[in-house]
Specification:
By secondary structure, the chain is α/β, with parallel strands linked by helices. The protein is built from 9 helices and 9 strands.
Length: 325
């Protein structure tokens, strides 16, 4: 069954709100701390910009960030924890010992005030799992994933949030786990683009050649338009596939910014003309430095959305709404 029965294209934005929990295993506070601290300004700026363009987005939030402090967080930990074969992936063994008590003394690991801003807005709050769970890494199991999801739902319910949608951390979509989502009442997920360069992979499979192809695809139509029809009807959560990661501004690649934006706008136009889905995503910490340049780029894209809305009735909605829920 196709959910786009009103015969219009759909524009979805999702953001992976994770702070240091999303990058602790690949970088450090010394290297990336400025990006994380910048989220304190980024989220209010995004909310204001979205309001100006009447955009409703989906904030996929790591469950840990629903906690006001460490004591509250510990009370919501999952009953069983992931048993990754490689301990370097295990946040409970590694990063928990480094965290502070609350947002005041540790703004890298806590962000409840920002969660409150999002909660007070008209955007959808989804889950990014409780612990930024890696669904394709060796050692972890479906029962451990189920425990993580239950912990995410428990802490969201304590904050009066009902979760309908999920974004898989690092886009490690594990199709065997879709039934776990359904059993927990999660009805929507963000899948991967169909091109082989975006196929879900564990860390060890993310080789240089694949990363290079994705970089080229940011500027050139290597993988095509990445626009989709939305279908459902098999009893599993509805896939609202990602179309494009909004790569942040990089002064070393500034000469390619117009090409990057043109690539995205061409895809948006294709979706609007063909009554398909276009799904843009990024992390708030991607805008944590060079915030003005990143917001300027986003404004260009939102201006283009407004043009497509007027010309083709291109509509914006959240992931949940795109699924027809």
């Amino acid at each position: 069954m196709n959910t786009q029965s009103d015969n219009t294209g759909t524009f979805v934005i999702s953001l992976d709100y994770e702070l240091l929990w999303g990058v602790w295993d690949v970088t450090s506070i010394d290297k990336y701390g400025e990006h994380i601290l910048g989220v304190k300004k980024v989220i209010p700026a995004l909310l204001n910009l979205f309001d100006a363009y009447h955009i409703r987005s989906t904030f996929a939030t790591v469950g840990i960030l629903f906690a006001k402090n460490k004591q509250e967080l510990i009370s919501c930990l999952p009953d069983i924890k992931p048993n990754y074969r490689d301990d370097r992936h295990n946040v409970y063994l590694k990063e928990f010992s480094a965290m502070g008590n609350d947002e005041t003394n540790d703004p890298y690991h806590f962000g409840y005030s920002l969660f409150e801003l999002i909660k007070q807005s008209n955007h959808e709050i989804a889950t990014h799992t409780f612990s930024h769970y890696f669904c394709l890494e060796e050692g972890q199991t479906a029962s451990e994933f189920d425990a993580d999801i239950k912990a995410a739902l428990k802490i969201s319910a304590a904050n009066n949030i009902r979760i309908s949608s999920l974004v898989f951390p690092r886009n490690q979509l594990n199709r065997e786990y879709l039934a776990v989502l359904a059993a927990n009442g999660i009805q929507v997920y963000r899948g991967n683009p169909v091109s082989w360069i975006y196929k879900p992979r564990k860390f060890s499979a993310e080789v240089y050649f694949i990363r290079f192809c994705r970089l080229l695809d940011t500027y050139l139509p290597i993988s095509g338009y990445n626009t989709f029809d939305i279908t459902k009807g098999n009893g599993l959560p509805v896939n609202i596939p990602a179309s494009r990661f909004l790569k942040p501004y990089n002064k070393n690649l500034a000469w390619l910014e117009k090409l990057k934006l043109k690539r995205i706008m061409n895809e948006m136009t294709h979706a609007a003309k063909n009554n398909q889905l276009y799904h843009l995503w990024w992390h708030p910490h991607n805008f944590g430095v060079n915030m003005s340049e990143n917001l300027d780029n986003l404004t260009v894209l939102l201006d283009h959305y407004r043009y497509l809305q007027n010309k083709y009735s291109f509509k914006n909605c959240t992931m949940k709404e795109a699924a027809g829920l």
